[in-house]
Amino acid sequence: MPLKTVLITGASGEIGHGLIDSLARQSDVRVVALDLQPMEGAMAAKCHRVVAGDILDADLIKRLSAEHDFDVIHHLAALLSTKSEREPILAHKVNVEGTMNLLEMAVGQARLQGRDVTFMYPSSIAVYGMPDVPTKKKAGRVSESEWLTPRTMYGTNKLYCELLGTYYAEHYRQLDAEPPRGRVDFRGIRFPGLISAATVPTGGTSDYGPEMLHMAAQGKPYACFVREDARIPFMAMPDGVDALLRLAAAPASKLTRRVYNIGAFAPSAGEILDLTKQAFPGADVTFKPDVKRQGIVDGWPEDVNDDAARNDWGWTPAFGLQRAFSDYLLPAITRRYGK
Ligand SMILES: NC(=O)c1ccc[n+]([C@@H]2O[C@H](COP(=O)([O-])OP(=O)(O)OC[C@H]3O[C@@H](n4cnc5c(N)ncnc54)[C@H](O)[C@@H]3O)[C@@H](O)[C@H]2O)c1
Fold it and tell me: Which of 18, 84, 259, 320 lies at a C-alpha separation of 20 to 30 Å from 76?
């Protein structure tokens, strides 16, 4: 079986961790991992090559492109929502210019090799932006084309990169006399907040869900930065990773869009606490909303309409809310902290 070479940027992060684990089980795949941060030994051992570097380093990207023919690129490297709000210029550089560097590399490879290069892009529910809580409640499950009025730097970066990727896939150099021999096959997923048992998030605005659980498991107090009734969609990390792999493998002929919503469950912060308390009855959690971070969560939808993903490429989450806790999060988190 011919080996597929898969580039993962931001490979040392939360999704990268899960993705490398899954790809390492596929015998026909070799992973080239790129991240600013060093990768821990056990994860690095699962990769064909690990590169420490910056996606903004154009020379490094050029070198990687000269050294490997990539079949699939999972472009995960980014600054997340809270960090992006605090450092907007850096966010624009990493999230937009960095993505542009990777798209340029992908289109160069596709044209040179005369074949399509699959470009997987993890977008976010942060592309949506609603003005207030009553509007959010009324909107319910938003579909991909509604409320594309992000209120954060991160959401704005993500929405623009969805458009940029779509442009590279469908219209890049449209005035050229000859049609290209290979294209960037750009495919995006608007992820909800992902909850991992293996890693603790940093820099995101959905972090309160996983933070609450990880702190309770360690017997540490936690002040939740949103109101008890704050509601956004969440998903267990294995489903997020599975979605990336499934969409990457879907036949292009089945896809009716370039960017898809995916949903699993949409609990309020209070409901996450209820489940956390069932497992850790001593959980010391208080609600101390940070008005500004709460404002960002209030702009994100309560839930998403993922009919297109279900119809086009068979998206179904393995974990609903109860099962995510009982079968995935609690066993692994309990093992991790030895309670
Ligand atoms: N985790 C979630 O809940 C969630 C939800 C929606 C979308 N996403 C998206 O998924 C992707 C991965 O998210 P994650 O949760 O794994 O984030 P993460 O913060 O855990 O990982 C991101 C990684 O990118 C790396 N990185 C940052 N800047 C870089 C640069 N200039 N060059 C090279 N590497 C760089 C970081 O070192 C980090 O390891 C991101 O694009 C994020 O926006 C995540």
Answer: 320
